[in-house]
């Protein structure tokens, strides 16, 4: 393949000090699409006082993502996200990141994910068991309840009893606070500026930290997540993520500190439910608008599962289900922007990136680029058929990032989404309104209005 040289061009003129922050904050996705369509594949712009470079060509994106663990640092702006996830993998760099990744990644490797499959299915069955033909509910809320239960069981080995609701509310409040910060001037304000959303975040994090301290103490004392022996309904203490984090050792034989266990647990928790619940919400919305795709899903789950609940072994055979997920993640990637700060030696497309430049790429704009995807706004899971005529460049699709800093939970999320969809599709259709749903930007790309699902029981064959 011929190498595409990178030749940055200046983007839109910004305001003094603020740069392009007002335009970006008002509508980030439209702003980024404007950079690509109006200026080119490599555009310089400014986010507040920060010099930035936006990449749109898959070759440049692949090179950037592939080298993020080298001459790049993480983008350390935003007080709220740092207060929530601390010094976890998400915000670590260099030797510290490599040490932590080597200790955390084994907790979500494919073999371990297979052991979580039953929890994924059982949690979905418990939720769907409450549904009746004709029921109506907020789709995202229901998907969040399912994924929240899954992540708590896989992370802590069981439900948390009466604390589950309060803890879930605290995480939701923390995530809303992070979303409030990322699109405006508060992104650059120091932590001592106590805006209302920051006070709410501190209260939420205090609740989360108290529970994490209790859970870690109970686990080290040999008791279960509820304060007694861990029994029933979960993955079991030997298999849960918290136990594995506590048991992890680096090359020197040292464990994660108590704070590191807290930070990695909270990061896995935050990333492990909101991104997947949002992806599932968009998938059901798209299926509701595509009777042909939904009929093909019905046929597949009936043929592959033959009336039994899905298992980890079914994942590879649920080909159409996986294509639905892949196409949903193309149209509505939960993570819509990936940044890193260039250091000495950062090069993309033969161009030396000035030190201190924040380099960005966007799954949203790349996934909807007509150069790489025919009819890019259409929901067409068949474009991912193994025999499809469409030739899609590598890194034109990257909802989980790429390279060594790609999302360690990508396999978990894809298996979880497939098993949830298959479990529900065996029993129900979800008819979603409105038919045309706008989106909004927070930590993830979410529906801007409630999507209401009407449950339709599938006839038993």
UniProtKB/TrEMBL annotation:
Residues binding heme, per UniProt: 407
InterPro entries named in the record: Cyt_P450, Cyt_P450_CS, Cyt_P450_E_grp-I, Cyt_P450_sf, Cytochrome_P450_monoxygenase
Top-level taxon: Bacteria
The keyword rRNA-binding belongs to this UniProt entry's keyword annotation: no
Coiled coil regions, renumbered to chain: none
Record's keyword terms, sorted: Heme, Iron, Metal-binding, Monooxygenase, Oxidoreductase
Cofactor entry: heme
Pfam families attached to this UniProt entry: p450
Gene Ontology terms for molecular function: heme binding; iron ion binding; monooxygenase activity; oxidoreductase activity, acting on paired donors, with incorporation or reduction of molecular oxygen
Name this protein carries in UniProt: Cytochrome P450
């Amino acid at each position: 393949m011929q190498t595409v040289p990178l030749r940055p061009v200046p983007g839109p003129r910004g305001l003094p000090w603020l740069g392009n922050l007002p335009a970006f904050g008002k509508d980030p996705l439209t702003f980024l699409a404007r950079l690509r369509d109006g200026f080119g594949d490599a555009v310089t712009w400014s986010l507040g006082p920060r010099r930035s470079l936006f990449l749109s060509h898959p070759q440049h994106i692949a090179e950037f993502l592939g080298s993020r663990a080298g001459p790049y640092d993480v983008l350390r702006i935003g007080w709220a996200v740092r207060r929530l996830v601390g010094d976890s993998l998400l915000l670590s760099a260099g030797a510290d990141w490599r040490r932590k990744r080597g200790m955390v990644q084994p907790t979500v490797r494919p073999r371990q994910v297979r052991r979580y499959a039953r929890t994924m299915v059982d949690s979905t069955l418990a939720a769907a068991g409450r549904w009746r033909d004709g029921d109506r509910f907020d789709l995202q809320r229901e998907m969040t309840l399912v994924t929240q239960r899954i992540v708590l069981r896989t992370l802590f080995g069981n439900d948390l009893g009466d604390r589950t609701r309060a803890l879930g509310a605290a995480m939701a409040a923390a995530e809303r606070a992070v979303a409030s910060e990322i699109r405006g001037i508060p992104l650059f304000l120091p932590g001592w500026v106590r805006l209302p959303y920051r006070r709410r975040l501190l209260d939420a994090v205090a609740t989360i930290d108290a529970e994490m301290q209790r859970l870690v103490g109970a686990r080290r004392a040999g008791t279960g997540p509820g304060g007694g022996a861990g029994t029933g309904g979960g993955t079991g203490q030997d298999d849960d993520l918290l136990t594995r984090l506590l048991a992890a050792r680096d090359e020197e034989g040292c464990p994660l500190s108590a704070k590191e266990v807290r930070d990695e647990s909270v990061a896995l928790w935050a990333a492990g439910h909101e991104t997947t619940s949002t992806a599932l919400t968009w998938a059901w919305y798209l299926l509701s608008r595509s009777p042909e795709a939904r009929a093909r899903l019905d046929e597949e789950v009936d043929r592959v599962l033959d009336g039994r609940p899905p298992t980890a072994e079914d994942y590879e055979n649920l080909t159409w289900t996986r294509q639905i997920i892949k196409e949903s993640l193309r149209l509505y990637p939960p993570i819509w922007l990936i940044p890193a700060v260039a250091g000495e030696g950062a090069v993309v497309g033969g161009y030396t990136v000035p030190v201190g430049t924040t380099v960005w790429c966007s799954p949203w704009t790349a996934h909807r680029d007509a150069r790489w995807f025919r009819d890019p706004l259409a929901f067409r899971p068949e474009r991912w058929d193994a025999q499809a005529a469409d030739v899609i460049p590598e890194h034109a699709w990257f909802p989980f990032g790429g390279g060594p800093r790609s999302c360690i939970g990508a396999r978990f999320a894809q298996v979880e989404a497939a098993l949830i969809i298959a479990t529900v599709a065996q029993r129900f259709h979800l008819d979603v309104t409105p038919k045309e749903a706008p989106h909004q930007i927070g930590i993830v790309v979410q529906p801007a209005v409630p999507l209401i699902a009407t449950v339709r029981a599938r006839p038993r064959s």
